[in-house]
Specification:
Elements (H helix, E strand, L loop, with lengths): L2 E5 L4 H12 L5 E4 L4 H11 L6 E4 L2 E4 L3 H8 L1
Parallel strand pairs: 1-2
Antiparallel strand pairs: 1-3, 3-4
Length: about 80
């Protein structure tokens, strides 16, 4: 399973999402778009959004911490 999370350091929902994955012992790659302009451009390209968090779970893009959508992708 491949999980990427695009975040910023001041995003409350980003932190909640990371805790959620950690509690489920699910590995993910985190890209902080606040310090990585290349990843910010990548996130905008794949999601059409400028807000975080954005998840790429096996190619499925989820904008925002939508627990139901995330759970569908990780089961």
């Amino acid at each position: 399973m491949s999980i990427k999370i695009y975040t910023t350091s001041i995003c409350k929902w980003c932190n909640i999402a990371k805790i959620y994955f950690q509690e489920k012992n699910i590995e993910y790659l985190e890209y902080n778009i606040g310090i990585d302009n290349e990843k910010e451009e990548e996130m905008i390209k794949i999601s059409g959004q400028r807000s975080v968090p954005v998840f790429d779970i096996n190619g499925t893009i989820i904008v925002g911490f939508d627990k139901d959508a995330i759970n569908e992708c990780i089961k």
